[in-house]
Amino acid sequence: MEALSESAILGGLKTRLMGQPALYYPSVSSTMDVARKAAQEGASEGTLVIADEQAAGRGRQGRAWLSPPGSLSLSLVLRPQIAHLPYLIMVASVAAVRAISRTTGLSARIKWPNDVLIGGKKVSGILIESHLRGGGVDFAILGIGINVNLDPSLFPPLAYPATSLSTELGHPVSRLEILWRLLEEIERLYLGLREGQSPYQEWRQRLETLGRRVRVEVGETIEEGLAEEVGQDGSLLLRRTDDTLARLVAGQTMPNLSEEAA
Ligand code: BTN
């Protein structure tokens, strides 16, 4: 397996923001924590924190995220406008799908809000932690984990079916190639956002969720129903079996909406 290092990463990087600088660690607790500390100490937008292994990788809704060697685990320091925060899940998930497709030819889909699946199995997860200050965004940490070269069947049963790029292809995949393409696509979408281009349409088209019956974990409860539509703000409009509508905001639910209000 090719080794990650700062010089190897910078050697093939074609971006001017994302991955500049690149901070590589063989092992960390979570790249989210290292990136947050760097951001608090003034790290510039685009700073990349990447590790070969995470001892305490975390996922959405307080879940653990397994990051054995062979996986790609990274966090980026961003300093977006507050109005752009809802678009970060779209930027990250669309970028992951594009990077996977450009590097491997595999076609991935997005499960609302931002799980990346191949053949219905999870290959990548995204976690965004925003730090607000004085009515604005101090910084946001965008974390992405991609199962690149690992065999999910060797790990304890997960809460969801999982796959990896090497499992899908039957041969190892370059983590550096995936990383370079991922950072390029994040940069393209993120800079586009600043120029007023929304990733919403592409994200919506790449969702496998719309028109399907879904179960969504919302804090302690589970919402079930037909995924009718997604909003520009990233929310999911779910028609429950009793015909009421719920607007789910990336894992949180807003107070009940009447049909008229929706
Ligand atoms: C999820 O699907 O629940 C989100 C998983 C996010 C995992 C990535 S790996 C890099 C970064 N560091 C972490 O501890 N988590 C994110």
Give a written overview of the molecule.
A hairpin with a 2-residue loop joins strand 8 and strand 9. The chain starts with 5 loop residues before the first helix and ends in a 9-residue tail after the last strand. The relative contact order is 0.14. By secondary structure, the protein is α+β, with helices and mostly antiparallel strands. Helix 3 packs antiparallel against helix 5 (175-194). It is globular, with a radius of gyration of 18 Å. 25% of the residues lie in helices and 31% in strands. It has helices at residues 6-11, 31-40, 88-104, 165-169, 175-194, 200-206; strands spanning 22-28, 48-54, 71-78, 109-111, 115-118, 121-133, 136-147, 213-218, 221-230, 236-239, 245-249, 252-253. Residues 251-262 have low confidence and may be disordered. The chain binds biotin. The site of biotin has 21 residues, from helix 2, strand 3, strand 6 and strand 7. Biotin (BTN) is lined by residues 30-32, 54, 57-60, 63, 65, 67, 73-75, 115, 125-127, 143-145.
